[in-house]
Amino acid sequence: MMTPQHQAFLADLSRHLPAERLLTDPLRTLAYGTDASFYRLVPQIVVLARNEAEVATLLRLAHHHQVALTLRAAGTSLSGQAVSDSVLVLVNEGWTQQEVLDEGARIRLQPGVIGQHANDTLRPYGRKIGPDPASIATARIGGMAANNSSGMCCGTRQNSYHTLHALRVMLADGTVLDTSDPANVAAFRISHAELLKELSWLATQARENSALHAKIRHKYRLKNTTGYGLNALIDFDDPVDILTHLMIGSEGTLGFIASITYDTVPDLAHKASTLVLFDELDVCCRAVTALKEQGRVAAVELVDRRSIAAVQGKAGMPAFMYGNLPSDAAALLIEVHAGDAQALQGHIAAVDTLLHTFSPAALSGFSTDPKVCDTYWALRKGLFPAVGAVRPVGSTCVIEDVAFPVERLAEGVRGLTALFDRFHYDEALVFGHALEGNLHFVFAPAFDSDAEVRRYSDFMDAVSQLVAVDFGGSLKAEHGTGRNVAPYVKLEWGEDGYALMRSIKRLFDPAGLLNPDVIISDRDDVHLADLKRLPAADPIVDTCIECGFCEPACPSNGLSLTPRQRIVLWRRIQQLRRDGSDPTLLAELEAEYGWAGVDTCAATGMCATRCPVGINTGALMKQLKGPSPHAAMASRIERNLGTVVGTARMGLGALQLARSMVGERATHKLNTLAHKVIPVLPIAPAATPGPAAPLPPAPTPAATEDNQVVYFASCVNRCFAESPQGGDNLATRTFNLFAKAGLTPVYPPNPATLCCGQPFESANATEAAQSALARTNAALLVASQQGRLPVYLDNAPCSLRLIEAQRAGQLDARLQLFDATRFLAERVLPRVAVVRQLDHLAVHVPCATSKAGQRDALLRVARACARQVTAPDIACCGFAGSKGFTLPELNANGLRHLRAALPDACEHGVSTSRTCQIGLSTHSGRPYASLEALLDDCTAARPGAAFHSPHTHSSTATPRRPMTEHATTSAPLTQD
Question: Rounded to whole angstroms, how far apart are CA atoms 756 and 800?
């Protein structure tokens, strides 16, 4: 129930913000209120704020009604600092502006920018931002700055505090301080003279207290995010500088960071990694100290014996990491960076020499091969999910991070391990950023009984005593204080330090309305309240730890729900079904979940590619959809596919005719009305092409067989033309390209009737899907001469479907199946000559190409054909097979940032899925075409290479068209 205060606040706020951005229903407040921590607070109101004026209004009304606010970006925080039972304000959508300054030396970022996107922007300059948390592909800048996040290479000198150049911050009274604007700073010094005077007084107290001053220096020699950044009080004299640096790591409790300007750091291109095994932990840790003193390494990750055992099943690890290792064994994962290959070899030699003085049990040797290095880092990255994936259902996965003085690292590891044994957290693992003495530990407590909560409480008490008192370390090295360590801040900092922190909080937030109970709390048990329970929901998703890493990959993020939110709500629904505690709430959630959860899920599985435990939430949504109610019709379509595709081409012809007669806008309105009356009738996006010409005849094979390729023409490419005007066919372009490469295509029997079965599988029409697969299998075996000839699959989703079916034993293992991207990169590009290049090309990597591991191959072909390539981070465009025709708002939402992500100079795009190309062209304003057309337009046969005529044009065949015809207003694709 919403309190009267919140009702009045909402009524006032409704006069300023549109209703669709004020969320109060139980489905969305629970969904949006979830973060990565192990706390569950459900906000009474969720506000989707889009600009500073709206945040200022929120602050003003919050003070008027005495309502607490919590501002949040991505919700990847681990310690409870991004949840609220009052008003949660989301600052992600609309807060994504980036501005590169001084040729990459600095970058100005709004809080909604994903950290990895900032680095992508800086990559051409050879720079990156300093903070590098493991969540950087999901975490947003606002949270990274507000938590002073660091990471594996960041250390203590490249975090937000030390790389801050300028800050734009809004205080609790709505005043904006922008330190990049001298006039603003001058006005602030006058308007807030008293606040600055108080800050100077607090700084004087910190400096004159010799014991506290020494403690501050000691604490920030380590990684430390426990409490407020008291180092600001002794590092700076100007109170404006003190203020801005106090905001870093303040977790939204002192003000709102509206933008931050970072001094960037070099992103050295040459890197190498090695794994080193030690039989003794003490020796391992002494090596860490020596490596830190040497200063040649960029990252050193420590992995304890339990952690090694947890990931011994991972493929690609050196042999010495397997088997029965000594109980005291530990490993180091070491990475070195350099600006050039010669400097890198110098670092490698120096580090190897140093390591051998510690007589390691085994070394993998440094590798510069990115694939090998990625395998090594998979060891480290797999540790969190190693616990999360095997924890008992109903338990929670907790990851905590502490820092010990590096010279006492081995003692710290032993101390933590002893506490795990004492409190029977037998699954716990220890690993971390060893150079900084920063250790993470992962364990799986259950919060389903008072006894379990007490066990957790006693454990935290013991950890706090060990780390903060016995070792003088940091209880929170890089994850932020949050709720979990708020009761222990005084223990770590002492009375004097804690008193300064309380004074800081009162000075900036006298009413206590900004993110209450975070960092500073009057509740000694705040870390034990509102603990998150993860009840069983379905085996497909029960291992979910609600981290949110999946969210940037989801095209329905912002339209309905994300994978994390779908799981959170399904858990709640299942719990309500079991306990029967609130039938009204259950009915409301069930009623809304159908569209928000199931119907709007793209079900492409891209969430699994970002998930630490590999969960495909789409698989659950497909399961909940149930068997197709139109299974019999699907089987009839499958048996008569050639006729159905022909009918579809007639429909596309009618669409083209209508557009030519009454225009695109009127046609779209008529199409939308018809769809409402007949839901199975698709809604054609603006870039829907005309009908494809019939498949061209295949050329006569040459005498030898080594140049023959079986060409599988997908039904989507038999239906839609390669060009918007229609009348051509992708096969024509492909055959011409093959001819340049000396390859001869051959068709399987009855190619116009075959289908991979994906449309039927997506609709849960299992019988039709299996029948289509069986007929395709038989035809491909005949055409390939029982597997002797390679099979070219011309559409990425279809190729993935067939390749995965073969892996599952549903397709003959003898078939040599080639995704088009892989075949073009490996067997065509090396055999042709690139004679033209575009100035700039946009590339979209479809879900299927990404999941097939062919992203790099696609980019390699694109870069051969263009001087500059832009590949926006759009994991899934949301067209999702037929959903782009039946649920166009999903595609529009998935591509809402595409147009802004493409430079004006970029006039053409390429993708490997025909339906994706339709959506991309519609929402980008640029023509997206096939990889085959791109390569055909940009290449010629190599001089002296055998040339096979693609085919003799029949009366129905259409000569190839250049990609330039995709948009008559665009510059030619084949520019010199």
Answer: 10
Residues facing residue 301 across a β-bridge = 333, 433
Q: Which of 519, 466, 529 is nearest to 490 (CA)?
A: 519
Q: How far apart are CA 425 and CA 456, in angstroms?
A: 10
Domains of the chain with CATH codes: 270-447+474-485 (3.40.462.40), 535-625 (no CATH), 641-826 (1.20.1050), 833-966 (3.40.50)
Which among 112, 96, 6, 95 has a CA at the least distance from the CA of 53? Answer: 95
Neighbours of 157 (CB within 10 A): 11
Residue 894 tokens, joined: 């998935």
pLDDT digits (tens, 9 = 90+) for 914-942: 999 999 999 999 999 999 999 999 999 98
Task: Provide the edge-to-edge strand list for the sheet that holds 909-911.
Answer: 866-870, 838-843, 909-911, 928-930
Residue 766 corresponds to which tokens in the numbers above?
């299992």
Region of poorest pLDDT, from 392-401, 740-749, 918-927: 392-401
Cα(305)–Cα(330) distance, integer angstroms: 5
What separation in angstroms does the CA of 159 have from each of 77, 163, 223, 605?
A: 16, 6, 10, 34
Q: How far apart are CA 433 and CA 380, in angstroms?
A: 10
Closest residue by Cα to residue 557 from 890, 849, 286: 890
CA-to-CA distance for 928 and 114, rounded, in angstroms? 26
For the residues of 293-338, what is the DSSP string, one character each?
Answer: HHT--SEEEEEEHHHHHHTTT-TT--GGGSS---TT-EEEEEEEEE
* Cβ neighbours of residue 773 closer than 8 Å, sequence gap 6 or more: 756, 757, 802, 805, 810, 811
961 close to 728: Cβ distance less than 8 angstroms: yes
- In 3D space, the residue among 714, 746, 738 whose CA is nearest the CA of residue 935 turns out to be 738
Q: Are 907 and 972 in contact (CB under 8 A)?
A: no
What does the pLDDT read at residue 955? 31
Q: CA torsion angle for 395, 401, 402, 404 (degrees, to 10)?
A: 120
Q: How many CB atoms lie within 10 A of CB 660?
A: 10
Rounded Cα distance, 681 and 669, in Å: 13
Sequence letter at residue 243: L
Cα separation, 953 vs 699, whole angstroms: 10
Q: Using CB atoms within 10 Å of the CB of residue 925, give its burial: 0 to 12 exposed, 13 to 18 middle, 19+ buried.
A: middle
Looking at the DSSP bridge assignments, the partners of residue 48 are 90
What's the whole-number average pLDDT of the chain? 93
Query: First CA to last CA across the chain, in angstroms?
Result: 66
The predicted-structure confidence for 174-188, as pLDDT tens digits, reads as follows: 999 999 999 999 999
Output the six-digit token pair for 355.
């390591």
Cα separation of 652 and 661, whole Å?
A: 14
Query: Which are the contacts of 763, defined by CB distance < 8 A and separation ≥ 6?
Result: 628, 630, 634
Residue 744 tokens, joined: 């001869």
For tokens 């991309």, what's the residue? 920
